[in-house]
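[audit] Reproducing an earlier prediction to check determinism. Same input, same settings, fresh worker. If the tokens differ from the archived copy the diff job will pick it up downstream; this log only records the rerun itself.
[audit] input (264 residues):
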Amino acid sequence: MYTFDYQRPASTAAAAAALQGDARYLAGGQSLVQSMKMRLSASGRLVDLGGVAELRGIRIEGGKLVIGAMTTHAAVGASAEVRRAIPALAELAGDIGDPMVRNMGTLGGSIANADPAACYPAAVVGLGATVHTNKRTIAGDSFFTGLFETALEPGELITAVSFPVPAKAAYVKHKQPASRFALVGVFVSQGAGGVRVAVTGAKGSVFRAKAIEDALAKSFTPEAAKAVKMSADGINSDLHGSAAYRAAMISVMAARAVAAANGR
């Protein structure tokens, strides 16, 4: 790990002011610190957001579930508020990584990192969430732009994410046993905005499975989801699974998610 300057501001405004020159925000550090240890990432300054209390918290506001960017996975998973509003989101958060990751990792850090196999991006897109920053709001559908890439501008800080409360929702993932990242993960929801199906782990970035959405709009059943044959074009292929395998698993995971959402 290279040497760097470390700052721990106490407010969002101070954090933004501290991000000057070759600097990066530090959330839970579950991805960034490991990259720095391996010398895959280097910054002259880290601005630790752990001291910014206003970036943590969970509340219902305007009929939506609003979660602060520095709220940990463990806090989301254990929250009675989240379990009442969107049980699928609590279950997703409670199954990320291991206890250390869940107690350190944060919602904002996860989506800013935009790992192609992370779970939270599937929830953001699968629920049609809105990402709030210190400068603007960004629709979840527009937030993830590519492999480890987002719509965030240099110095822009995620402050919270607001999730519409669906009528039904569920998330199911086929885990890579060692990392617990998703080889294929599917978040399904049915609500005022219709049916949404978001897939993680299968491409360079989370994406919506439109063919499965169309099928579920006609019949919100596991059978309808499983009957859709997903194309393997553009799907990841590696030692854990071929593109054809992952494509087939999208429909399987979607069917299981619909069954869970229907209480089956």
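[audit] rerun output stored. Observation attached for the diff report: The mean pLDDT is 94.
[audit] end
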